């Protein structure tokens, strides 16, 4: 009855568990954004970013810091250790900024602190455009901003609705220069007239008999037609209607960015979910709302793109299918080898019971159902079947010896308590270091460790308490003898005996040969490429473009449309954000010269072909443009991927807080590219330059002619900019009024403009200003050591030669150089995994020493480990996989599984020798007794994991190296347990006796 209560509790826990793509891990990143108009990158770095960066270096658990300064904008990115409480880090960063504020420039707005979350990646993007084309975009913008946005925000589970591609209305006043001159007026007179007419003078309380009223004095302007009715006076006192000296027009505000779906302009909405919302429930509600939008607004087209819920559905369904298929395959193995339908049926009861009980542990530890925890359940599935197979086989063996069924159940279970508990402990003990591992490895392995521990603990509990009872109930009335082994098993057993006899005929040669094979096989690891995480196969990519030319956003849009046209046959869907975006939630820089394009391809082949086409197009038509191609962002990329180069050399000036002159850095770049052709060295952060223009005031002339600098600067701003005069406000809608000059280039405006002094003296503007063009760094990047300029490569090649060259060049040029990139993190993670493996082996040895009551017998298990590692490395190499963090986790897990079969055989040898058998007799008989459970447990473990290798999607890509390492180790480990363990036990026993 108690089991039924536990099962019910497990079902309730399962229903209550949240479903998510990845574990609930804080993204260890904070971004501080700065907006400081009219400052150059170097000024921003020296006056703002450097003090900020140095102040934030003392924040707790900070791993790395980097700043980037552009014209008028900058940001400081902080990376923290995984496991940092980001709520506290966010508070500490804000406190540091508040303390530093008095020493920052007074006109600087407070820096904006953004905490990066997995919810920053939108769960979907809603594309909205007109079926009639791009006409009426202003009306569509009003509909989206004032109606649809609010309806979407009202949906349960939606946290933020972020927009881009909106157009705003404006009123433009364009002065007629010839009439202004003829009437002795200036543009400033128009501004003053509009400002005076757009004032609200408040209200006055007045009495009228028995009543009291509030009289409103003056009224704000409401429309462009009211502005057109205004008049102003010239110096002679004549009334001049505004329409005679200026054109007044209702139009669209100057566009600084576009959004395209395909090649048609539209509006995009990024939809973000609340942290506690279940994506599987939220997306159906969103789709239902969009169906209603389509019915309410038939002239508007709606389409969902970049749906992250699809990624979740595929990942979860694939792993769930793997779980089911693995169970079915293991069920068939048991059916074939045991030759009885009752045994597989009992295992069919054990599996779901263990799974359901494990959900109680999930609930208590606050773990969700995600691709990491489900993979742990998939792994624990094979171990659960192992316990049942070993226990069933031993009870059957006791029945063959003639014991009654009740006694066989009791004795058989008691005999297996020690080896099964020991196997469970040795499996769990290798997960203990993983659960407390720091960094990315700890973030990935914690939930997997808890999942394996949960199902394995539940399996041991069910095996000892429920399984013997079910066996007794099923066979208590059976009068038949235990069924003999089937022909298939006898044939396999015959092969085992033949190979066993061969190895024991040449014991010394076989033992040394197998031992050397394991040691030499471990060298395969040197052939494997090393990386932090396996590459995830995605069919969508992002193309980021920086044209590195001072082009207008309209030119940017035309170029993007041409790019899309050239590659139109190689993608299914595309959307583009061009120029300055309107998204509220963004931490990357956007400028008029930048664009980001999303491509969805039909297959991996089409994706590779598209990447090749895009690179060739830009090399041919825009070689100076900077492009980046990378996987489209998702929650996993945000958590664990940083898009860093494999190797990066950061050159720094020996003078503090100064950049390396471009005249020095360019020759360095050429040396690297000429001497390291195979590395494909390219310019990295803080190296690109662009052309800038600046106006230099002729101050001596200005003093000579009595011109005030402030007044002249105001004149230049009016001349070159679209100056905002005021706003029209009505029912919450704000329409700006702007003074706009004719649409000519700034050189023409300067040459044809005049500056008036005291309403009497008129001078050409160009007499007091000159234009200079120069090359300067587009961005200034810095880290803990100061401003740097990076050369980088994404080629995973030995870095010794590159670092030697960088140090020599830095010494010759009196520069400093530091190194960064993924290779450093790879080394750190691999060293951490190596340390964990060593700790796991040590814990494994101590557990076995306690169980065997011997310091020598555990060495038999230790000697089998090289062969297991060799099998793992061999399978990774044959599959073309890398040695990454997930493969390292697989190696650690393999340690906990591969020893189970060895423990079972050693325990059987000891028991038989205690019964009086000689060493060789005990080894031979023990081998026959353990052959079936060893073979069956290996096959069930392998088959439980095998479906993962044939799955697709992000979950499978992440787990395949993990599974390959385990299957490879188990495949060789089975051979080791059958033939090498007897030899090792034999020689260890001889050595111990002597």
Descriptors for this entry?
19% strand; alpha+beta; 994 residues; single chain; six-stranded antiparallel beta sheet; elongated; nine-stranded antiparallel beta sheet; 54% helix; 30 helices
- What portion of residues belong to β-strands? 15-25%
Average of per-residue pLDDT values: 80
Envelope shape = elongated
Q: Spans with pLDDT under 50 lasting ≥5 residues?
A: none
- SSE-based structural type: alpha+beta
Q: How many beta-strand segments?
A: 31
Distance between the termini: 55 Å
- Estimated helix fraction: 40-55%
Q: How many whole angstroms does the radius of gyration measure? A: 37 Å
At a glance:
It is built from 30 helices and 31 strands. It has 994 residues and is α+β, with helices and mostly antiparallel strands.
Describe this structure in words.
The protein is of the alpha+beta class and 994 residues long. The chain starts with a helix and ends with a helix. The strands form eight sheets. Strands 1, 2, 3, 4, 21, 22, 29, 30 and 31 form a nine-stranded antiparallel beta sheet that branches.
């Amino acid at each position: 009855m108690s089991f039924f209560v536990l099962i019910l509790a497990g079902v309730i826990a399962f229903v209550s568990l949240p479903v998510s793509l990845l574990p609930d891990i804080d993204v260890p990143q904070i971004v501080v954004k700065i907006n400081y108009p009219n400052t150059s990158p170097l000024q921003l770095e020296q006056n703002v970013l450097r003090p900020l960066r140095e102040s934030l270096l003392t924040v707790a658990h900070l791993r790395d810091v980097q700043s980037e300064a552009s014209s008028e904008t900058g940001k400081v990115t902080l990376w923290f250790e995984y496991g940092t409480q980001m709520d506290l880090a966010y508070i500490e960063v804000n406190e540091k900024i508040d303390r530093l504020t008095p020493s920052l420039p007074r006109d600087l707005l407070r820096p904006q602190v953004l905490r990066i979350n997995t919810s920053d990646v939108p769960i979907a993007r809603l594309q909205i455009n007109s079926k009639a084309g791009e006409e009426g975009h202003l009306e569509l913008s009003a509909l989206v901003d004032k109606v649809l946005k609010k309806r979407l925000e009202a949906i349960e589970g939606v946290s933020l609705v972020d927009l881009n591609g909106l157009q705003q209305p404006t009123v433009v006043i364009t002065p007629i220069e010839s009439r202004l001159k003829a009437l002795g007026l200036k543009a400033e007179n128009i501004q003053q007239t509009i400002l005076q007419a757009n004032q609200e003078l408040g209200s006055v309380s007045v009495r009228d008999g028995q009543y009291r009223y509030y009289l409103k004095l003056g009224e704000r302007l409401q429309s462009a037609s009211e502005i057109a009715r205004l008049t102003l006076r010239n110096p002679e006192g004549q009334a001049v209607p505004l329409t005679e000296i200026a054109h007044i027009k209702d139009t669209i505000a100057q566009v600084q960015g576009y959004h395209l779906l395909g090649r048609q302009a539209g509006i995009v909405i990024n939809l973000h979910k609340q942290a506690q919302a279940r994506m599987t429930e939220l997306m159906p509600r969103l789709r239902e709302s969009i169906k209603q939008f389509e019915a309410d607004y038939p002239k508007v087209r709606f389409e969902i793109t970049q749906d992250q819920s699809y990624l979740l559905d595929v990942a979860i369904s694939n792993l769930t299918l793997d779980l089911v298929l693995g169970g079915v395959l293991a069920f068939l193995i048991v059916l074939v080898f045991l030759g009885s339908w009752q045994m597989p049926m009992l295992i069919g009861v054990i599996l779901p019971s263990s799974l359901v009980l494990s959900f109680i542990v999930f609930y208590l530890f606050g773990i969700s159902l995600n691709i990491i925890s489900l993979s742990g359940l998939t792994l624990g599935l094979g171990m659960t079947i192992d316990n049942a197979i070993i226990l069933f086989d031993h009870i059957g063996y006791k029945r063959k010896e003639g014991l009654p069924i009740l006694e066989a159940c009791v004795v058989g279970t008691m005999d297996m308590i020690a080896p099964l508990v020991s196997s469970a402990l040795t499996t769990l003990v290798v997960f203990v270091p993983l659960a407390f591992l720091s960094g990315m490895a700890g973030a990935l392995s914690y939930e997997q460790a808890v999942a394996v521990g949960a199902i394995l603990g539940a399996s041991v509990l069910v095996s000892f308490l429920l399984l013997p009872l079910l066996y007794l109930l099923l066979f208590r009335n059976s009068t038949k003898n235990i069924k003999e082994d089937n022909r298939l098993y006898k044939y396999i057993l015959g092969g085992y005996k033949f190979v066993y006899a061969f190895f024991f005929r040449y014991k010394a040669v076989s033992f040394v040969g197998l031992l050397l094979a394991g040691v030499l096989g471990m060298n395969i690891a040197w052939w494997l490429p090393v990386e932090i995480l396996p590459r995830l196969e995605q069919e969508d990519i992002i193309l980021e473009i920086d044209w590195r030319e001072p082009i207008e956003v309209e030119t940017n849009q035309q170029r993007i449309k041409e790019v899309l046209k050239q590659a139109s046959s190689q993608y299914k869907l595309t959307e583009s954000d061009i120029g300055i975006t309107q998204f509220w939630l963004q931490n990357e820089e956007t400028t008029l010269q930048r664009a980001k394009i999303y491509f969805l391809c039909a297959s991996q082949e089409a994706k590779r072909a598209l990447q090749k086409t895009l690179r060739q197009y830009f090399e041919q038509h825009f070689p100076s443009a900077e492009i980046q191609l990378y996987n489209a962002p998702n929650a996993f990329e945000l958590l664990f991927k940083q898009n860093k180069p494999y190797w990066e050399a950061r050159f720094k000036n020996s003078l503090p807080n100064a950049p390396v002159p471009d005249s020095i850095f360019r020759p360095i770049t050429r040396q690297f590219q000429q001497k390291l052709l195979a590395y494909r060295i390219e310019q990295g952060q803080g190296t690109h330059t662009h052309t800038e223009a600046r106006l230099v005031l002729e101050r001596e002339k200005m003093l000579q002619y009595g011109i005030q600098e402030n007044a002249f600067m105001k004149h230049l701003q009016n001349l070159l900019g679209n100056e905002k005069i005021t706003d029209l406000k009505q029912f919450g809608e704000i329409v700006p009024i702007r003074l706009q000059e004719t649409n000519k280039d700034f050189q023409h405006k300067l040459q044809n403009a005049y500056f008036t002094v005291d309403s009497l003296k008129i001078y050409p503007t160009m007499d007091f200003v000159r234009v200079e063009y120069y090359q300067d760094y587009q961005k200034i990047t810095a880290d803990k050591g100061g401003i740097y300029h990076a050369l980088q490569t994404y080629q995973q090649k030995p870095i010794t030669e590159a670092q030697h060259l960088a140090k020599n060049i830095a010494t010759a040029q009196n520069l400093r150089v530091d190194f960064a990139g993924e290779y450093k993190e790879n080394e750190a993670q691999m060293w951490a995994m190596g340390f964990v493996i060593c700790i796991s082996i040590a814990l494994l040895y101590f557990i076995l020493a306690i169980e065997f009551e011997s310091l020598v017998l555990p060495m038999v298990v230790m000697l089998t480990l090289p062969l297991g590692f060799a099998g793992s490395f061999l399978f990774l190499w044959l599959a073309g996989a890398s040695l990454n963090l997930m493969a390292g986790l697989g190696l650690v897990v393999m340690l906990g599984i591969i020893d189970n079969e060895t423990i079972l055989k050693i325990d059987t040898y000891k028991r038989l020798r205690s019964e009086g058998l000689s060493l060789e007799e005990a080894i031979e008989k023990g081998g026959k007794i353990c052959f079936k459970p060893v073979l069956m447990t290996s096959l069930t473990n392998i088959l439980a994991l095998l479906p993962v290798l044939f799955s697709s999607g992000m979950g499978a890509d992440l787990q395949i190296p993990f599974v390959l390492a385990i299957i490879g180790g188990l495949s060789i480990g089975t051979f080791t347990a059958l033939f090498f363990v007897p030899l090792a036990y034999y020689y260890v026993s001889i050595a111990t006796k002597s």
